Amino acid sequence: MIIGWGEFFALACAFAWAWAIILFRRAGDDLPPFELNLVKNLVGFSLVLPTLAFFEGYQLPAFSLKEIGITMLSGFIGIAVADTWYLRALSLMGASRTGIVASLLSPIVILLSILFLGESLRGWQLAGFALVMSGILLVSWKQNRREVDSEHLRKGMIFGVGAIFMMAVGIVMVKEILETRPFLWTTELRLTGGVLGMFAYMALPGRLERVRQRFSWSLPWRHILPASILGAYISMMMWLAGYKLIPASVASVLNETATAWIVLLAWLVLGESIGFRKLAGLLLTSAGVIIMLLA
Predict the structure, then answer these.
(1) For residue 110, is pLDDT > 60?
(2) Could you give the count of Cα atoms lying within 13 Å of 108 in the half-sphere of its Cβ?
(3) Reported pTM
């Protein structure tokens, strides 16, 4: 078979995450990034819990204290901080520019994987990586920068780059634990770290009351809940499964196809325009993925 389970999960994760972003984009007009991320993580935590009970039971496996600490810290970095910053960038500069920044995930993961996990990309995989990155930049780049305020663009870039770096650090630091410990327990511990980190932030003076006020608003739950299920349960389970089964450097490249899916779904669902440039970018990205799978 050309596609193994690891490649399948990495690609399916990209598709599910793209749907989540479309819905988060709609919900982001009514709920700020931190609160949106809080709902997402609580939904994910609540859904993984019964899944864990059904497949693995509630008896904690043989995690060392160090492994528990690393996994929860990975969740704090990659879920509490990174996802909040990502949603903040999305609200500041839109999906296309955030997609450009998100394309940094593969290079950062690859660099960290080479430095800390001893991984590398072969020649054809490098070619596939180059095509994927070229396609992502092509479909994401917008020629008219005046539609976004320069200050919003600057802040969005800072939040976006920071988010992608945190995501990369979070997944690379838990990669070896994913490979050697029960998958669902690792997922739930990671979510626990993310949720506890957000609760700790709310414990700061004035934060809890501010969060309560924002949840008193009339909110589009028809967008928030499906986005949270897709973003914090379905796509995250497949994201971690991909990293568990195949090298982090390969999984990160396949995950990048989410940007192309976002452009396509934005056209189909939100009615955004799609022209020759975006179609060409989608073709480049698809070709790169095929090369990655065949290499």
Answers:
(1) yes
(2) 19
(3) 0.80
The helix (H) or strand (E) run that includes residue 207 is: helix 207-215
Tokens of 107: 């290079």
Dihedral, CA of residue 128, residue 132, residue 133 and residue 134, to nearest 10: 100
Alpha carbon distance, N-terminus to C-terminus of the chain:
13
- Per-residue pLDDT of 167-178, as tens digits, reads 989 988 998 898
Q: How far is 276 from 222, CA to CA, in rounded Å?
A: 33
Q: 1 pLDDT exceeds 50?
A: no
Structure-model confidence comparison of residues 292 and 264, the more confident one: 264
Question: Using an 8 Å Cβ cutoff, are 260 and 184 in contact?
Answer: no
Residues 170 and 82: beta-carbon distance below 8 Å? yes
Alpha-carbon gap, residue 121 to 129, rounded angstroms: 9
The owner of tokens 């690792």 is 186
